[in-house]
Every structure is written in structure tokens, then in C-alpha cells.
Design brief:
Lambda_DNA-bd_dom_sf; Umud Fragment, subunit A; alpha+beta; 2 domains; eight-stranded mixed sheet
């Protein structure tokens, strides 16, 4: 997998932009663009990545993955099982660690977006998330869970006794772990489709 820095440079040259022009479109300095391209800055915020993809005129998946032959298209997340990556045609992505430096994740990740007409806590229509399938709690954060036969996105954390609890977006609903709850995947990155 090539790294993000050279990909930014290649896409900038393909778009026929100099560093200053790209910097203006993204809202950063041309020095920042140089640091991104050289890899001196490896941590790029999600909003900046979305702005960068828009400025370069390319899909976010191309910025993240590069020009691989079989790019993974975002999978639709629906309320009802099965999980989107259980489709035999689903393709995983390689998520550059500089996109999610706080997440040390081994294994597959899939690009997922809410299906048209579907709504979830923490996700709005057009949002894109990288989900790492897992049934094991590794750290607090957003998870795709199955509860009562439905897919939900919840903040999962441990309570004072070390038991898992599932928290809704507005913390109005805190559900303790029960037999009808199971983890399906950890959301390791999220890009929100809101205007910058």
C-alpha cells in the first residue's frame, strides 16, 4: 500500500494544481500541503480529508485507497441484518494508519454509509465510516451492534463494574449488556457529510 503523502501529491498534479492553489481550496497553508505530501505530518483530520478530496476533485475513497484495480464501493448499512460486509461481493479497504492514529486496528475495514431512507444514531445520510468487523470489545468508542434483531450504532463503554453499556447519541438511552446485544464492528473512522 502506498502512503497518503505521495497519493496527495499525485492527485494534486493530476488536478493541475500547485501547492498554493490546493492550499487555498482546502483552507490551509501551502507549507501544510508540503508537509502532508512529504509525510512530515501524518495526522490529517477528517474534515480536512473531506475538503482535500473535494479540492482534488476525487472521491474520498480514492484519496484513502489510491488507484487500486478493484476499489471498494461504500456498502449500505441497513437496520436489518445481515451486516453489510457479509455480502460475498464486499471488498475491504486498507486504511492508512495516519488517518486514524489513535486506532491500532489489525484486520479488515469496510467503507459503510447509511442506506437511503435508513437513519442511525451518530450517522446521517451521506456520512461515510470505516468499520472493522469484530465481536470483541477492545476500547471505548462507536460500534455497530445488533440488539433485538436490529442494527444500531452506539457508543460502547465499560461501566464502573467493567460491564459493557451501550449509549445512544443523546445519552438519553443507556442500555446494559444483555443476551440480545452483540458487537458487530468498531467504527474506526468517520467522515461526516456536512458543509465545511
Amino acid at each position: 500500500m502506498d502512503s497518503l503523502g505521495p497519493r496527495i501529491k499525485a492527485l494534486r498534479l493530476e488536478a493541475k494544481l500547485n501547492k498554493a492553489a490546493l492550499a487555498r481550496r482546502v483552507g490551509v497553508s501551502d507549507v501544510t500541503i508540503s508537509y502532508w505530501e512529504s509525510g512530515a505530518i501524518r495526522q490529517i483530520g477528517h474534515e480536512r480529508l473531506v475538503a482535500l478530496a473535494q479540492a482534488l476533485g476525487c472521491p474520498l475513497s480514492r484519496l484513502i485507497e489510491g488507484d487500486q484495480k478493484h476499489l471498494a464501493a461504500p456498502l449500505y448499512l441497513r437496520r436489518r441484518p445481515p451486516a453489510p460486509w457479509q455480502d460475498p461481493a464486499a471488498k475491504p479497504i486498507e486504511l492508512p494508519f495516519e488517518l486514524v492514529p489513535a486506532q491500532r486496528w489489525e484486520g479488515s475495514c469496510y467503507l459503510v454509509t447509511p442506506a437511503p431512507g435508513e437513519s442511525f444514531d451518530f450517522l446521517q445520510e451521506g456520512d461515510l465510516v470505516a468499520v472493522a468487523p469484530t465481536e470483541v470489545f477492545r476500547q471505548s468508542g462507536l460500534y455497530l451492534i445488533e440488539m433485538g434483531g436490529k442494527h444500531l450504532v452506539r457508543q460502547v463503554r465499560e461501566d464502573s463494574r467493567g460491564e459493557l453499556e451501550f449509549v445512544s447519541e443523546h445519552e438519553a438511552e443507556v442500555t446494559p449488556f444483555s443476551q440480545d446485544c452483540r458487537l458487530l464492528g468498531k467504527l474506526v473512522a468517520r467522515w461526516q457529510a456536512r458543509p465545511l
